[in-house]
Specification:
single chain, mainly alpha, three-stranded mixed β-sheet, 7 helices
Length: 151
């Protein structure tokens, strides 16, 4: 993954959580500049393999996304995992708009891939350190339960 994508992703999420000084218009101008920027050798950017990521960011910007769904979290974690980047800020972004102590999600844990399940376990550990409780709706008994109770 190019540094370009990481730069865009980081700036975009800082924009979402409101600690960038630029307004939305300035941010979009910067974003398009990133897309047209030449690399350190003067070559135009190659987006092979990154189009899905750029389209994702454009969609999030166009809908002025606030917060992050579980699907978005899993998608971003898989990209970070693919590229062997540190993922701590993804946890922070996920948590940013979640103000309640219990974070309740609806998904069938048993259909997740091994990697996705590991991402969820890591998120659960992170949230525990922040005093938050992650609960999933268990379709088998109709209750919200912690990850440990379900597994």
């Amino acid at each position: 993954m190019s540094t370009l994508y990481i730069k865009i992703l980081t700036d975009y999420f800082h924009h979402i959580i409101g600690d960038l000084e630029e307004n939305r218009k300035n941010f979009l101008e910067k974003f398009y500049t990133y897309l047209l920027e030449k690399d350190e050798y003067g070559f135009d950017p190659i987006f092979e393999g990154e189009l899905e990521r750029i389209e994702y960011l454009l969609k999030q910007i166009s809908i002025e996304a606030k917060g992050m769904s579980l699907d978005e979290f899993l998608k971003l974690m898989s990209w970070y995992n693919e590229d062997a980047w540190a993922n701590g800020e993804i946890f922070e972004y996920f948590l940013h708009h979640k103000k309640e102590k219990e974070i309740k999600l609806i998904t069938d844990i048993h259909t997740l891939t091994e990697n996705e399940l590991q991402f969820i376990k890591d998120l659960d550990n992170f949230l525990n350190t922040k005093g938050k409780i992650l609960k999933f709706f268990n379709v088998h008994n109709g209750k919200y339960q912690s990850l440990k109770e379900i597994l």
